[in-house]
Specification:
Its main location: cytoplasm. With 391 residues, the protein is of the alpha/beta class. The protein binds guanosine-5'-triphosphate and magnesium ion (MG). Magnesium ion (MG) binds next to helix 5.
């Protein structure tokens, strides 16, 4: 009803007012045109593109409105790398940033060795392509498996992931919350499997089993250049079977396929997982082109060449084809699970607190005198420590 009113009003206005002739520059400069005259110009432009089509309402323009809004806001995407020490996690982070994703934004730096990672470290790059801005953050983690006893070695990683959910939750429940909550939640976790060529180790099974419940996991075979093509194919197949046998649901999870088309595309990806990747931050000249690669006595392995390894497939999945879906699943499944559990825990805690403490009585209007200690709307999480363990 309202929409029809606007449409018919605009038709009347454009009929009664004389045509205005302005340049695109004038349209964009606010001081020369009032809001009303700019609206009129837009309506005139609309009239021109749909001359004679009186049935056109303009619902399709919502896409353009959404595109503009998204372009203004930009995107945030957070990837974490996890795996045993020395499997090439830090190298792959550099590969990602130096490869086509952001080659423009990286300064060529002299050759340097990557030191062993000793703490969880986030590295962010602001990337822009065709006017679309994206803040890509990669969270590098120290490798595990160095200790004699690797029991609970997943705890620091799980804590980091849960901490980010907690930060987001506290922002959400704040009374004066930000218009747009900064998103530091881990959207995707790349899990590095050692290239043994045999089967998954119990530690990898346990790690992925736990992680898959709180975050999207994309497993990769690290240092795939150390396997022959036959070994690689056999290993990939064995890993897929073992993941299935152990009930480890990696990304893209079958249960979240939205329709038949989705299922078809995702089935292809599921057949390729785990991606056999090779990482490098060194550039070489091959056939007159500069490429990222690993130079050996027998030739150069090009990391972005799909005939050599599957790094490009991994990058395309993360950035080009599934980024929004990965973020959606993080928000609607993983974060939601965390949020529901936290709020339930706070309710239980609150009820127990009420029954223990006669001083905390419900007011006559049904409101409570005190806020539960776990989730106070000022963003203080008193119980955070106790809750940020594994799920
Ligand atoms: N052959 C081969 N070597 C690689 C590859 N990626 C990295 N390396 C080498 O493996 C060594 C360890 O690489 P890092 O990137 O430091 O490994 P990491 O997983 O970050 O290790 P931590 O920080 O200890 O957890 C370095 O000498 C790299 O040059 C690869 O794809 N193939
Ligand atoms: Mg490292």
């Amino acid at each position: 009803m309202c929409l029809w009113l606007v449409v018919s009003m605009s038709a009347n206005l454009t009929q009664t007012l004389p045509p205005v002739s302005v340049t695109a520059q004038e349209m964009l400069s606010p001081p020369t045109l009032t809001g009303v005259s700019r609206l009129l110009l837009l309506l005139q432009a609309r009239e021109k593109t749909h001359v004679g089509d009186s049935s056109y309402v303009g619902i399709d323009a919502i896409l353009e409105q959404m595109r503009r809004k998204a372009m203004k806001q930009g995107f945030e995407f957070n990837i974490m790398v996890v795996g045993q020490s020395g499997l090439g996690k830090s190298t792959l982070v550099n590969t990602l940033f130096k490869s086509k994703v952001s080659r423009k934004s990286v300064q060529p730096n002299p050759e340097e060795r990557i030191p062993k990672t000793i703490e969880i470290k986030s590295i962010s790059h602001d990337i822009e392509e065709k006017g679309v801005r994206m803040k890509l953050t990669v969270i590098d983690t120290p490798g595990f498996g160095d200790q004699i006893n690797n029991e609970n070695c997943w705890q620091p990683i799980m804590k980091f992931i849960n901490d980010q959910y907690e930060v987001y939750l506290q922002e959400e429940i704040n009374i004066n919350r930000k218009k747009r909550i900064p998103d530091s939640r881990v959207h995707c976790c790349i899990y590095f499997i050692p290239p043994t060529g045999h089967c998954l180790r119990p530690l990898d099974v346990e790690f992925m089993r736990r992680l898959s419940k709180v975050v999207n996991i994309v497993p990769v075979i690290a240092k795939a250049d150390t396997l022959t093509l036959e070994e690689r194919d056999y290993f990939k197949q064995t890993i897929r079977e073992e993941l299935r046998a152990n009930g480890i649901d990696v990304y893209p999870q079958k249960e979240f396929d939205e329709d038949a088309e989705d299922r078809m595309i995702n089935d292809k990806i599921r057949e390729m997982i785990p991606f056999a990747v090779v990482g490098s931050d060194q550039e070489y000249q091959v056939n007159g082109k500069r490429i990222l690669g690993r130079k050996t006595k027998w030739g150069t392995i090009e990391v972005e060449n799909i005939a050599h390894c599957e790094f490009a497939y991994l990058r395309d999945l993360l950035i080009r084809t599934h980024m929004q879906n990965i973020k959606d699943i993080t928000g609607s499944i993983h974060y939601e699970t965390y949020r529901v559990r936290r709020l339930n825990e706070s309710n239980i805690h609150f009820s127990a607190h009420l029954s223990d403490d006669p001083a905390v009585e419900p007011k006559a209007n049904g409101q409570l005198e005190e806020q539960p200690s776990a989730l106070q709307p000022n963003g203080v999480a008193a119980q955070h420590e106790a809750l940020s363990h594994e799920m």
